[in-house]
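Are you able to produce any protein sequence you like plus the matching backbone structure tokens because I've never seen that pairing?
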Amino acid sequence: MNPIRIGLLGIGTVGGGTWEVITRNAEEISRRVGRPLTITRIADLDTVRARELSGGAADVTDDARSVTRDPDIDIVVELIGGYGIARELVLDAIAHGKHVVTANKALLATHGEEIFAASHQNGVVVAFEAAVGGGIPIIKALREGLVANRIEWIAGIINGTTNFILSEMRDRGVDFPSALADAQANGYAEADPTFDIEGIDAAHKITLMAAMAFGIPVQFDACYVEGVTRVEQTDIRYAEKLGYRLKLLGITRRREHGVELRVHPCLVPTTRLIANVEGVMNAVLVQGDAVGPTLYYGAGAGSEPTASAVIADLVDVARLITADPGHRVPSLAFQPEHVSADLPVLPMDDVVTSYYLRLCLADRPGVLADVTRILADERVSIESALQQEPGAEEDRASIVLLTHPTTERAIQAAIARIQALPTSYADVVLIRMEKLS
């Protein structure tokens, strides 16, 4: 049969990996698809490098639109990244009847509604397995493998850079700046690591998963985002003593009146498998009503792991090219006419979870009683407490409290009142907790 002809936009780290894997495993891929997959055109500003990588086996150009509008191209693979030109090229490819495969979570999280609407209108597929979790097939699991389930919640370690940083802080006892410097030295963090360490990258990914899990619009702006820059070594040590490990989690949960959508540092019991995911690895835990908990683990980034997901999408699209558009697997798991905004994303104040609080208080009788009275007033129940021996300043005590589940609104009100006490000597440190059971 005639080959599926692919236009590749960008041949950087992931693009280069995609070229390498699709070339190396061409025979195996062809056997699975029933016809060859061939990258026939490459668009990249560095045409010299692109020609070197492709060895002259594909036409190379610096004009990406000549690829998105080429009548001989069946599928466009967008691996440029960013919001600007990538959006224009993806929409141009769709308008010209091309199926699209992308690893661009930022693009889909911010412009997904526009892009998916355009793809539906033009009868083409937008596939994005590589946009979440690198080589982990979590999108396929949500879109196909778990379709019989009513998804209850998802919690994921979905940013390898921050997971490496937190692992280094725990294992080596270093502070955040040192762990970040190690991540940059090892190539796990960019020179400007803002998207990773501030939680934005993870928020893009959990936003997409929430849309697929609950059949709601893609709503990145509604996601609560908190990064790891304020994580202190002290709290990592306390967490270990209490049987918890600190992770940056993306969490989305179905509630009666809406959906929680949040990214923040979180204490997880060390008995949970996901708490023991270390280094740059990713893991996503999905709770379905029929199947129960399922865990997806693997490399969340890297040239060939991400290329693996890109090519998996290419194979899927190639198999679907001759199918009736009305019978294809929907990009966001639900049929477009059944994606509903009736289930809103809840404001952070309405989120319900447990909390770790670290307080610095005057070490004298009655002070802790004042704190517990405030917590009781705000309907916050204490699960356990830990007090350290006095340090250099013997008139002060460091106290850690773990709470039972309560609302964010209640805990923030309690913290404001505690910090206003004359016997409170520092801002209260708050870290959310999830039992994931």
Remarks:
- The radius of gyration is 24 Å.
- The chain has a mean pLDDT of 94.
- The longest helix spans residues 105-122.
